[in-house]
């Protein structure tokens, strides 16, 4: 069974993403901020990370940079309300496989998680 980690400081956002995954045969793990998210990336070795950008303690950009530095090869789909062109470009530069804007549209979500064969 594939493991998906949702890293987002907003409980509502985690709940929505988790509900979008309910029809997939996946194990969902959650983290409420970037520090917890990084710990769970290292300990859980998820198959996919759904990552918010703006969080307390450690933001999503730092996690993307750390993943690149560590050569972990875990695909990341960024899920953020910050859709500025430079933000999206920075996410792509640091290896994000897809970028979803909040609020997430189900069809766009399904397309984005195709980076992980489920």
Automatic annotation (TrEMBL):
Residues 3-117 form the Response regulatory domain. The modification 4-aspartylphosphate is found at residue 52. The keyword Phosphoprotein applies. Transmembrane segments: none annotated. It comes from the Bacteria. The lineage of its organism: Bacteria, Pseudomonadati, Bacteroidota, Bacteroidia, Marinilabiliales. CDD domains: REC. Keywords: Phosphoprotein. This is Response regulator. Gene3D superfamilies: 3.40.50.2300. It comes from Carboxylicivirga marina. InterPro entries: Bact_response_regulator, CheY-like_superfamily, Sig_transdc_resp-reg_receiver. It holds the Pfam family Response_reg.
């Amino acid at each position: 069974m594939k493991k998906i980690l949702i890293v987002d400081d907003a409980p509502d956002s985690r709940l929505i993403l988790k509900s979008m995954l309910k029809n997939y045969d996946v194990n969902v793990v959650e983290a409420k901020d970037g520090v917890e998210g990084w710990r769970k990336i290292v300990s859980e070795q998820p198959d996919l990370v759904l990552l918010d950008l703006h969080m307390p303690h450690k933001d999503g950009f730092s996690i993307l940079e750390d993943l690149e530095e560590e050569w972990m090869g875990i695909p990341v789909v960024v899920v953020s309300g910050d859709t500025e062109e430079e933000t999206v470009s920075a996410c792509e530069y640091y290896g994000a496989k897809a970028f979803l804007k909040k609020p997430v549209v189900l069809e766009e979500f399904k397309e984005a998680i195709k980076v992980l064969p489920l």
